[in-house]
């Protein structure tokens, strides 16, 4: 048993360009999400019907998560946050399909996303207070808290990424263990539980934490 | 299990490609649609509000007009009533006057007639009295009585010495 991403082949035969199963599923996820988005928004009208309602519901649901924490900037952050929600959520869900591994079960995915969030958080902080003002904020309320604040800030992407990664991989490991211990029929509800509910909740948490970090940096 | 490598870069590219394309295919169209709808609903609501106001103004105007018309009608009715009353009074007055005149005239006529009748009656009575007296005298004065009366008269003349020459 070897949980986590499995290297499938090397791009152009180079050792430093491995292609893992999680990356392949990630590409697949992107393609499916884009097809779905294109389908859902293929015939928009002022009076929504059917699939347009679903698309609007998703967008508005995410917007309603952002707006209360970043008042007045819901639409500015929507593309970024919504893409996190959708990509992470879909990546978690796609693990339901037998034979596919969740891209979020790969630390490369979650840490990558967490680092993007980290960069956005720093950018927004500096945009709000100016570069020097933002940096000075780490030395408050007293100067000797500076190292602690910096470590705390650097720990954010780590905790952010490992939380999602740990949950997805942990769920995967438990499922694998139960698969080995029990007949394949029994784990189905468990599989659904770990991959569906935990997956959705972790996607929600990942996105909400991203919003919270941005909100904290701006406040 | 935890192996950080270049797939992180690929995943980031995935994320940004998805971000870019979803923005184009999902967020922007949906936001445009929501904005458009909100604008339309706002417009519709404003329109409805304006129409409601307009309707209220019209209603007030019509109510005022109705009130005016009612007042006018009342005035006309009142005028007509007053005029009718006045006319009726005039008619009655005239009638009364005429009746009075007529009465006076009739009374006068009656008076006249009465006078005439009285005069006539007087004449008639005189005639009849004479006639009756004549008749009575004719009937009662027979030869003897006549003679006696003449004699009495003559005696009376004697008694009073009327016939005596002085």
Automatic annotation (TrEMBL), chain A:
Membrane topology: Multi-pass membrane protein
SUPFAM superfamilies assigned to the protein according to its UniProt record, in alphabetical order: F1F0 ATP synthase subunit A (SSF81336)
GO biological process: proton motive force-driven plasma membrane ATP synthesis
Any Pfam family matching the protein: ATP-synt_A
Keyword vocabulary terms for this entry: ATP synthesis, Cell membrane, CF(0), Hydrogen ion transport, Ion transport, Membrane, Transmembrane, Transmembrane helix, Transport
Protein purpose: Key component of the proton channel; it plays a direct role in the translocation of protons across the membrane.
Entry's family note: Belongs to the ATPase A chain family.
Name used for this protein in its record: ATP synthase subunit a
Species of provenance: Halanaerobium saccharolyticum
Designated gene of the protein: atpB
UniProtKB/TrEMBL annotation, chain B:
Residues passing through the membrane, by range: 6-27
One cellular component term from this protein's GO annotations in UniProt: proton-transporting ATP synthase complex
Pfam families: ATP-synt_B
Coiled coil start-end: 31-127
Membrane topology summary: Single-pass membrane protein
GO molecular function per UniProt: proton-transporting ATP synthase activity, rotational mechanism; proton-transporting ATPase activity, rotational mechanism
Keyword Coiled coil: yes
UniProt KW Phosphoprotein keyword: no
Subcellular location: Cell membrane; Endomembrane system
Record's keyword terms, sorted: ATP synthesis, Cell membrane, CF(0), Coiled coil, Hydrogen ion transport, Ion transport, Membrane, Transmembrane, Transmembrane helix, Transport
Family, as annotated: Belongs to the ATPase B chain family.
Oligomer status and interactors: F-type ATPases have 2 components, F(1) - the catalytic core - and F(0) - the membrane proton channel. F(1) has five subunits: alpha(3), beta(3), gamma(1), delta(1), epsilon(1). F(0) has three main subunits: a(1), b(2) and c(10-14). The alpha and beta chains form an alternating ring which encloses part of the gamma chain. F(1) is attached to F(0) by a central stalk formed by the gamma and epsilon chains, while a peripheral stalk is formed by the delta and b chains.
Function: F(1)F(0) ATP synthase produces ATP from ADP in the presence of a proton or sodium gradient. F-type ATPases consist of two structural domains, F(1) containing the extramembraneous catalytic core and F(0) containing the membrane proton channel, linked together by a central stalk and a peripheral stalk. During catalysis, ATP synthesis in the catalytic domain of F(1) is coupled via a rotary mechanism of the central stalk subunits to proton translocation. Component of the F(0) channel, it forms part of the peripheral stalk, linking F(1) to F(0).
Protein name per Swiss-Prot or TrEMBL: ATP synthase subunit b
Species of origin: Halanaerobium saccharolyticum
Recorded name of the encoding gene: atpF
